[in-house]
Amino acid sequence: MANVKNAAIREIIIDRCLQDSKGYTVLQILKKCNAALELRGYREVTSPNTILNDFVAISNRWHQAIVSERKGRNIVYHYRDRRFSIFKAPIGEQDIIEMYEALETLKKFESFQGFEWVEELSLNIRSKLLMGNDAKPVMAFDDNKELRGMDLFSQLHDYIRMEQPLLIKYQTYRTEKLMELSVHPYFLKQYNSRWFLIAYNEQHRCISNYAIDRILSVETVGNKFIPTDIDFTEYYDNVIGVSIMPDKEPVEVLLRVDGKQYPYLESKPLHHSQSLIETDEEGNAVVSLKVIPNYELTQQILAMGSKATVIKPAELREKLSGIVKEMVKNYE
């Protein structure tokens, strides 16, 4: 459970830095986190993206905006509400770390039948951390407990640990044809309240993702396991969601965002690379993302409707333009 403790320690340090009125850069926060980790005997963090991902996690979990501010040549970060802290409780740091360790372990079972009580327990503990023992719960997690295929989750988890090649029966939404695929399971990833198996596909000789709710059955096979040295905690750094093209490099995506939409986008960034380029007097903004364009990015932009427009790259702009034209035809 060292990784969970590592994350909890980082969250404590980041919370303190974000409360500071002067603000800290990502590298300064990274240095402070590593000092705390080293003091407790944990492995240091090497990537600034880890801190940026922690920002997104804190912002999403506690519904608090983390804003960036340019000071000279540096960009510093702080809470929009300087009075906010995720640890307003009369308990010590070690108590918080141990609570988080227990909560993260229990949360793995929230979507399983018979474990509905886990969310309520998690909610009560987090609420008490924030507001004291007499506080009423004020939060709920957006988990899809009715998601099909979760009965396979623990099996897939074990097969990944065992490095066990599999034969899966899989059916996509696009066709009624049932596919039998020989895969080598590597990783489980959640996106948009769905779980995906990340595995090497023998037929196509590439790494692909498979929605667990579309996997109909799983069988073990005697093939030799094909290992990978990919660190999947960093593999998805440059994309939104689970669709990835390893041969593609991240590009700058510029979006023009309506002034009424931008506050939402600022409080819940599309990606950890999101940064503000400029704003006008009406609050309209131009934001930049450094990502590999994929299906999920397209869906996120379309979800903002007329409130967001792609400036570049031209290929993505043309793709969105084509989709919008087809949508207009549906209403003619």
List keywords for this structure.
single chain; alpha+beta; 5-stranded antiparallel β-sheet; 4-stranded antiparallel β-sheet; 10 helices; 37% helix; globular
Compose a concise summary of this entry.
Helix content is 37%, strand content 22%. With 332 residues, the protein is an alpha+beta fold. The model is unreliable at 130-141 (pLDDT under 50).
Structure description:
The chain starts with a helix and ends with a helix. The protein is 37% helix and 22% strand. It is of the alpha+beta class and 332 residues long. It is built from 10 helices and 11 strands. The strands form 3 sheets. A 5-stranded antiparallel β-sheet has the order 6-5-4-3-7. A 4-stranded antiparallel β-sheet has the order 9-10-8-11, covered by helices on one side. Strands 1-2 form a two-stranded antiparallel ribbon. Helix 1 crosses helix 2 and helix 4 packs antiparallel against helix 5. It is globular.
**What is the strand content?**
15-25%
Average pLDDT, rounded to a whole number, is 83
SSE order: HHHEEHHHEEEEEHEHEEHEH
Low-pLDDT residue intervals, each spanning 5 or more residues:
130-141
User: How would the global form be characterised?
Assistant: globular
How many strand segments? 11
The number of distinct helices, counting runs of at least 4 residues, comes to 10
Structural class: alpha+beta
Portion of residues within helices: 25-40%
Strand sequence of the main sheet, in spatial order?
6-5-4-3-7
Report on the biggest sheet. Answer: 5 strands, antiparallel
